[in-house]
Design brief:
383 residues, Aminopeptidase, four-stranded antiparallel β-sheet
Length: 383
């Protein structure tokens, strides 16, 4: 088996890529990655040079993996700025580095697609060996595998040495559908004080004259789309002082190629759109991704980004709601702490040892953080 690099996802047929991954997860689909590249959000210019890997057995592709050469650490949500600074202090270059991840999307999912009939353990070992050889020959400092799903984590655990990969853990907050039939069923699972607080937040939004509507797929109009993007960009500029990672071309391509995975919450006061929140979903999970507001309206963020999403999951029978990374405020609204993982191969043995020591200590803090988070969950005992 040998490995081949592709400088654009467009060089790999979509039917081949999607067929090998065989996943409903929207973020790993060819159309999503292609929209990032065709819009210019992902490119050498933005510090995300595509180097997608395909493993071949003869002339047949038996595995694929998204991969990028990075010249910075923005848009990854696994924070390694301290590692880069340590390299700099020692007169070494941390960038460029290689990462296998979904740009700007801290979403757990498959990262290595294996063709049906291929021996998975052999393919996985060969793919990891190939990406490490790429780092060695092309002078990349490291390779980082971000937010892999549970199946891949278990596969890595069964490998003899894990390819010298260092495991890192963090905490996200997800909502789980406990067979609720209605939003009131979910509310009934909460302690009285938290239940009253959620009701009060929802009522406050309505009392301010805001009406919300959920739309999916072809229900989303051109006007809705225009208003959403205006909300998204306005909020991003206020928060960061510059435009977001994602431009209008990306969102237009997403609507054109992946409408069946889109759910948009539109918030209006009279005829005027004041906020919008865009989600992606598959047959199991809702993913909260992009939000923006043109007016500062109390509790509207909770309603548009959390409660509307929970209702959508209940209505559709989706089992999980991943609202995005960070945010302890999600705990009091029914989101539970869960582990996310990443794996890191560091070429320099000295730094690999130092980072391994750091990660051992960090894991103790992460364990303690999750335990404390679980203590403030709003559910009744037994739920």
């Amino acid at each position: 088996m040998y490995c081949k690099c592709y400088s654009s996802i467009a060089e790999i047929p979509s039917t081949l890529w999607d067929g090998i991954f065989d996943s409903a997860n929207p973020f790993v689909q060819h159309a999503f990655l292609l929209a990032l590249e065709e819009s210019g959000c992902v490119s050498a210019k933005t510090g995300w040079q595509p180097l997608h890997l395909a493993l071949l057995d003869g002339e047949q592709i038996v595995a694929v993996m998204p991969c990028y050469a990075k010249t910075h650490s923005y848009g990854e949500f696994v924070f390694d700025w301290g590692w880069a600074e340590a390299y700099q202090r020692h007169g070494l270059d941390y960038y460029p580095k290689l990462i296998s991840a979904i740009p700007f999307s801290p979403v757990t999912g498959p990262r290595i697609g294996v063709a049906p009939g291929a021996r998975k353990s052999d393919v996985l070992a060969a793919m990891i060996d190939a990406v490490q050889r790429l780092a060695l020959t092309q002078d990349y400092s490291s390779w980082h595998l971000l937010f892999p799903d549970q199946d891949l984590q278990e596969d890595l655990a069964r490998m003899k040495d894990g390819g010298m990969l260092l495991r890192r853990e963090a905490v996200q907050f997800h909502w789980f559908n406990r067979d609720y039939r209605t939003f009131d069923d979910f509310l009934a699972s909460l302690r009285s004080a938290r239940r009253k607080n959620l009701k009060r937040e929802r009522r406050k939004v309505a009392e301010q004259g805001v009406v919300l509507q959920r739309k999916t797929g072809q229900q989303i109009s051109a006007e809705d789309w225009r208003d959403f993007y205006q909300c998204y960009m306005d909020t991003y500029r206020k928060r960061s002082g510059h435009d977001g990672y994602l431009n209008r071309d990306f969102f237009d391509l997403l609507r054109r190629s992946m409408a069946e995975h889109l759910m948009l919450v539109v918030a209006r006061k009279g005829p005027v759109t004041v906020a919008a929140s865009l989600f992606l979903f598959d047959n199991n999970t809702l993913y909260g991704r992009y939000w923006g507001a043109l007016q500062d309206i109390s509790c509207l963020h909770f309603e548009a980004c959390f409660y509307q999403g929970i209702e959508f999951c209940i209505d559709r029978g989706l089992q999980k709601f991943d609202p995005g990374t960070q945010g302890e405020h999600k705990l009091l609204r029914g989101f539970e702490p869960v582990r996310s993982t990443s794996y890191h191969w560091i070429k320099d043995v000295r730094f690999r040892t130092a980072i391994a020591d750091f990660l051992r200590l960090e894991k103790l803090e992460t364990d303690d953080y999750q335990q404390q988070a679980e203590m403030v969950l709003p559910y009744k005992k037994g739920n």
